[in-house]
Structures are given as C-alpha cells and as structure tokens.
Amino acid sequence: MLFRTPSDRLPEMMTAQRFDPIRQAAATRLAGEPLRGGPAEHDGDGGGSKGGTESGTVTKTRPKTKRPNLYRVLLLNDDYTPMEFVILILQDVFNKSREDAVRIMLHVHQKGVGECGVYPYEVAETKVTRVMDTARKNQHPLQCVMEKQ
Ligand code: TYC
Known about the structure:
Blueprint (H helix, E strand, L loop, with lengths): L20 H8 L21 E3 L5 E3 L9 E7 L6 H10 L5 H14 L1 E8 H17 L5 E6 L1
Antiparallel strand pairs: 1-2, 3-4, 3-5
Helix pairs in contact: 2-3
L-tyrosinamide binds next to β3, α2 and α3.
Keywords: Hydrolase, Protease
GO molecular function, one term: peptidase activity
Subunit structure: Binds to the N-terminal domain of the chaperone ClpA.
C-alpha cells in the first residue's frame, strides 16, 4: 500500500494512548501520591473512614495525627520567695484552685521540687517565662524549669 500514513504501521498502543497527557501524568506520578481531586484522595474527615472509589476498591485511610511531645513544668524551692507569692503564681499561671496551689507550694517547700503541670513545648515554655519574669520583677529568686516527659 503506497499511501498509508505512518500511524497505520504502528501498533495501537504506540499511537493514541501513548500520547494521552492524562494517562501520561497518571503513569509518571510518584508512587503512592494520589492525583489531585481524584477518587483516591481521602475525605478530609481526619482519617479512619472507609471510602469507596470509582473502581469499587474500598480503602481505609490512616489518621496522620501525631501526639505532641509533652513537658513537665517544675517549681524549685528556695529560702526567700514568700509562700503567698508561690501560691498566687500557681493560681494565675497554672490555673490551680487555691487548695491545689497551697498543696503544690507545700510539696515544693518540703521536697525541694514539684510539678505544676504537663504541656506541649510552647505552652510549657510560655509558662516558665511568665513565672521567671514575674519573680524577677518582684525580686524573688523563684526558679521554674521544664523537662521532657
Ligand atoms: N521555701 C519558701 C519559704 O519558706 C517557700 C517556697 C515554696 C519557695 C515553693 C519556692 O517554689 C517554692 N518562704
């Protein structure tokens, strides 16, 4: 046949399908990365749900929640900071009731160290800063530290 176009001689796989840009994108995307807006994309409900796809495949998405690292905030005893000042710090900064604040202050006074609370890093850091700034302003040597739990 003299007037055949070049594509007449190519197998079907090498012509139309091979140059389909959507198939090309699907074939070359990174493994495990769903096409944006495609059926494999989860429903954004926080994970753990079952979802059907257009192909009838049932997938279970894993929640990608990470537990934050927690830090204990500790008060240290000293001989000079007034008991009442420590009680007010525990009430204002750590949201303790008067009764809990007295109990924690006496624990620190007797044992040398005591826990005021457990928080994610930035919350713990902010509380330590508030205690140290307030103590310095009032010229008390009260010390507050944080340690990874
Ligand atoms: N020991 C202090 C006093 O006798 C009271 C105190 C308690 C100070 C707890 C610091 O973290 C502290 N006045």
